Amino acid sequence: MTDLSPINDNPISLELICFGEGHFEKHHITDLSQIPPFLEQEHKFWLNVTSLNNLDLLNEIKVIFDIHSMALEDILNTQERPKVEVFDHFILIVVKMLYTRTEIVDLETEQISIVIGKNYVISFQENKYDVFDGIRSRLENPSGKIRKHGTDYFAYTLLDAIVDEYYAILEKITDQIEVLEEKIINEDKKIRLGEIYTQRKSIQLLKKVIWPTRELLSTLKKTESFLIKRRTLPFINDIYEQSVQIMDNLEMQRESITTLVEIFMTNISLRQNDVMKTLTIIATIFIPLTFLAGVYGMNFEYMPELKWKYGYWFTWIIFLGISIIMVFYFKRKRWF
């Protein structure tokens, strides 16, 4: 059974925009009794519901718009997979919205449910953050195309804004990968493997979202419903093509991340080999010196060299001579 408990503690907010050719109104709804008169108008309107924590209010919206109980369950289940459900007098679209609040790619996922009716579109969001500011601005433009078309075209603009944000996020990820690639090639020792895996995680999340979204758009453009006009289908198909391109680019970036990990690990191995080579050369130089020091450190009474006046200095000459010869030999072999 679907859990219909409150999603979060954010206060619910209702934004209503009524629009048409030569007509624009914007309201902040405080009482649901304000909504029914808009249903009787010839103009179209968009009701944006922010936060899903007031079940009583959501049930009132369900009654006003005659939304099916199963549809409301899908709206409240924020773990729902992106999909399209066609009902008698409305269409429900469930999709995931991705966005970042900073320049750093730190992705946030939010489910948004879109209900398309004859003269209305309702969007249900988990919180106040969205990617629809551009659409709000376009609605204020009296000569904008968005005012002239039906609710199906308006729903398309919402989906288009969501998919466009996928593109923007993918571009940020691509930029981050290019920066990481440059650092790795330049052997920047400050870079950490976690930075690469952060980008990999972002790619996996984006792929997890865009894959079912592509299926959703494919289903939507084949939907036989009076609410989806034929003239809107080319626009929906355009978003579908965008989703396919994003998937292709994601595969390319995923391969780039795999390559970066391989290069990173190779660089680490090379640095470790350099360290081991240096230590080996030092140890090799000191092996004969240690041998000589060990020989002359033995406590035998009759060792001729111990009585020689210049024995100490001669030993140092041997030590230095062996070291210089070995260093010269290693350099000739290009071991360092």
TrEMBL record:
Pfam families: CorA. GO terms for molecular function: cobalt ion binding; cobalt ion transmembrane transporter activity; magnesium ion binding; magnesium ion transmembrane transporter activity. The keyword Magnesium applies. The keyword Membrane applies. It is found in: Cell membrane; Membrane. It comes from the Bacteria. The chain crosses the membrane at residues 279-298, 310-330. It is a multi-pass membrane protein. One of its GO terms (cellular component) is plasma membrane. InterPro entries: CorA_cytoplasmic_dom, CorA_TM1_TM2, Mg/Co-transport_prot_CorA, MgTranspt_CorA/ZnTranspt_ZntB. Residues 163-190 form a coiled coil. Keywords: Cell membrane, Coiled coil, Ion transport, Magnesium, Membrane, Transmembrane, Transmembrane helix, Transport. Belongs to the CorA metal ion transporter (MIT) (TC 1.A.35) family. Mediates influx of magnesium ions. This is Magnesium transport protein CorA. It comes from Cecembia calidifontis. The gene is corA.
